[in-house]
Amino acid sequence: MAESGGGGGCCPPMDLMRSETMQLVQLIVPMESAHLTVSYLGDLGLVQFKDLNSEKSPFQRTYAAQIKRCGEMARKIRFFRDQMSKAGVPAKEMLVKENDIDLDDVEVKLGELEAELVEINANNDKLQRSYNELMEYKLVLQKAGEFFSSAHRSATDQQSEIESQQAGEDLLESPLLQEEKSIDSTKQVKLGFLTGLVPREKSMVFERILFRATRGNIFIRQTVIEEPVIDPNTGEKAEKNVFVVFYSGERAKSKILKICEAFGANRYPFSEDLGRQAQMITEVSGRLSELKTTIDAGLGQRNILLQTIGDKFELWNLKVRKEKAIYHTLNMLSLDVTKKCLVAEGWSPVFASNEIQDALQRAAVDSNSQVGSIFQVLRTKESPPTYFRTNKFTSAIQEIVDAYGVAKYQEANPGVFTIVTFPFLFAVMFGDWGHGICILLATMYLILREKKLSSQKLGDIMEMAFGGRYVILMMSLFSIYTGLIYNEFFSIPYPLFAPSAYDCRDTSCSEATTIGLIKVRDTYPFGLDPVWHGSRSELPFLNSLKMKMSILLGVSQMNLGIIMSYFNARFFKSSVNIWFQFIPQMIFLNSLFGYLSVLIIIKWCTGSQADLYHVMIYMFLSPMDELGENQLFPHQKTVQLLLLFLALVSVPCMLLPKPFILKKQHEARHQGQLYAPLDETDESLHVETSGGSHGHEEFEFSEIFVHQLIHTIEFVLGAVSNTASYLRLWALSLAHSELSSVFYEKVLLLAFGYNNVLIWIVGIIVFIFATVGVLLVMETLSAFLHALRLHWVEFQNKFYEGDGYKFAPFTFVFTANEDE
C-alpha cells in the first residue's frame, strides 16, 4: 500500500490507504516579497490558500488593477492565437525560462505588436474588399457585355432584314410608310438600365419583386456565374447571377435601387458603348493585377509578423497566465493593520513544512527584503482537505473512486483495493483471452506513445481512454487470465495446458455429449476442460459454475468492505462503531450469505446433489424440519438454527445501543466542559473525527435514532439485494460468451460453408466489425459500468462516507495547458 513517490527525495513514500496528514498554516509575508513568495509557492504546488477577503467584491480587492492589466494582456494573446491559427503559423516551444522576462516589457511589446497587426489586417481587409469588388465588376462587364453585344447583333440583323423587305414594296406606298415611320420615331422613349450581381438563391424572388413593384414595366435578363465569387461585404464565397434591368423613368429607377439594396445586390456602372466596355475591362484587369501584388506583399508581411509572435508566444502566454494566477492568489490574502505585511492562511501536508519554509526564505533573499516571512501552524477544528499522492498508474483508479465522493480526511481509501478488484470484476464479465489480447494491443499503443499523445489535443472519448490507459491495461490482463480459466478464444476452446480428460466411449459419440464421454486422463490442470464447449450440458454447467462463483466473489468483497469499516472505527478511536456496527454486520451477513458460500464450497468438494435453494429457503420458512437428502454435513440443522438466531439478534444490536451510547457520551462531555483543562501548547492539528463528536452542537437524539434506523434497514435489505446484484457477474459473462459464440458460428462458420471466396471475404469483414463494434466496444463499456456499480454501491457503501473535499493547491503545473 505504500508506494514510492515520483518526486525524488523531497517527499515521503505515498500511502494510498490514508490521506496525507494536513495542517493549517499561517504565513505573514512582507509586501515587497509577497509576489515572489506566492510565485515560489506556486512552483512548489503544496499550499491550498484560503480566501480571507471573501466579503469583498473582486473590484474592492488590493490587486484588482493588476488583474485587469493581466486580463488585457491575456486578451491580446488570445487575439494572436486566433490570428496564428487562421494563418497556420505554429507556436514554437520555449527556449528560455519565463522568469527571465519582465511583465512590463511583455505588456509594451504586446501592445506594439497588436497595433501593428491590427493595422496590417485593416489595410489587408480594405485591399481584399476592393479586389473582390473589382472581381465582381469584371464579371459584370464580361457577362453584361456579352448580352449587349448579342442584342446589338440581333438588332442589326433584324434591321437589315426589314430594310430588304421595304426595298421591294410599291413606290406609291412608300411616302405613307415613311411618314408613319417618322411619326413613330418622335414617340420613342429612352430606356435606362442597371447592372450588378444578386445571390442566386434570391434571384427568382428578386425578379418577381421587381416585376410587381414596377407593374411589369421592366425588362430583366440574368446570367449564371459558374464559379462561386467572394462577396465584398461578407468576405464569404457565394453563388451569384449577373443581372441587367431596363426601366423607364426616375420613379422606376428609385424603386429598383431600393429593391437591390434590400436583396444585397451589388450594382456596378456599365456603358453601352462597346469600345468603352473593352477599355473598362482592360483597366479593371490592370487594377486587379496591382491589387493582387499588393495583397500578397501585405500577407507576406503579416506572416513574418506572426512568425515573430510565434517565436515567443508560449513564453508570453505562460508568463501572463502565471502573473494573473499570482495576483488572484494575492487577492485572497489580507492586509495586516500596519499595511506593510500580507497575512495568508492555507492547508498544506505536514511533510511539506520544510519545503514551504525554504521557498519563503528564498523569496525573501531574492526580493532583497529586510524582513523574512513568518511560518506558523494554527490549531483548528475545521476538517482538512483530502490529499492522496498518486502517480500515472494509480491516478485513474483514484479518479474513479473520487467520482463517487472524495474521501473524508484520513478515511480508508477504497482505491487501494479497487486497483485490483475493479479490473478483476470487469474480467469476470469479459472473460475471453482473444478479446483481452485485442484490448491489450490497443492499450500498449497508447502506453508506448504516451509522451507524444500527452502533448496533443485528443477528442473527448480518446482523451478518456488515454487517461485510463493503465486501468484498461489491467482490465485486458485480467481478461486474458479469466479467458484462460473459461477456456475461450473468440468463443473457441483450446487444450492449451493438456489434452482433455475425456474421450468418446465409441464412434457413436459424434455429438460430443457428456453422456457418451468417459474420463481417460487426469483432470484438466487449469481452467475449464475444452470438452464442455459444444456439449449439451455446457449451458447448465456454466450457469451453475458462474452463478456460484459470483456469489462467492460478492460475499468476499462485501466482507472486505465491512472489515474496512472496522479499520476506520479503530483509526478514529470509535469503539461504538466496532461493537455495535462492525460486529453485528459481520454476524448478520455471514450467518446468511457467508453460510451459503460455505455450502457452495462443501457441495463442490463433496459432489453432493443437495438443492441449495431448498436449504436456504426452508432455513427461514421451516427451520425445525429435517433436511433429509439436502444435508451436507453433520449437525447442519443445529448450525442453521444457531446462525438464524445470531442473524435475528444482530439486527437490534445494530439499531438500539449506538444512539443511547452516543447520547450518554454527549452528556458526559457536555458536563465535563464546565471545568475543561487549558489547551495544550502543542501546535499540531486537532480535528474531531469521532462519529459521535459534536462539540457544542445540540444533540438531537431523535435525529440520531432515525438515522441509525435507516442505516440498519438499509444494511439488512442491502445484504440481500447486494448479494443478488453480484449475479450480474454471471449474467454478463454468459451474455458475452453467447454473443461471441453466435458471431463465430452464425457469421464466420456460415460464410466458410460456401465455396465462394467473395462470401468468405464478406463473412470475415462482418465478423471483424461485429467483434470490434459489439464485443470490444459495447460489451467493454457495459462490463465497465457494471463493475463500477458493484464498487460504488455494493462495496463502498459498507464503510466509505465520501463526504470530504479534495486538496486543491495553488500550482502552475497545468497553467500552460488550460484555456481560459
Structure in words:
- Belongs to the V-ATPase 116 kDa subunit family.
- The chain crosses the membrane at residues 424-448, 469-486, 549-567, 579-602, 638-656, 757-778.
- It is a multi-pass membrane protein.
- Helices cover 59% and strands 8% of the residues.
- It has helices spanning 31-44, 64-87, 103-167, 174-186, 203-213, 250-262, 274-330, 353-366, 395-404, 415-429, 433-448, 450-454, 460-467, 469-486, 538-571, 575-606, 612-621, 636-655, 657-672, 701-725, 728-752, 757-795; strands spanning 2-3, 14-15, 22-30, 48-49, 192-199, 219-224, 229-230, 237-238, 240-247, 266-268, 334-335, 341-349, 374-378, 502-504, 517-519.
- The strands form five sheets. Strands 3, 4, 11, 12 and 13 form a five-stranded antiparallel beta sheet that branches. A four-stranded antiparallel beta sheet has the order 6-9-5-10, with helices on both faces. Strands 1-2 form a two-stranded antiparallel sheet.
- A hairpin with a 5-residue loop joins strand 11 and strand 12 (341-349).
- The chain is extended, with a radius of gyration of 43 Å.
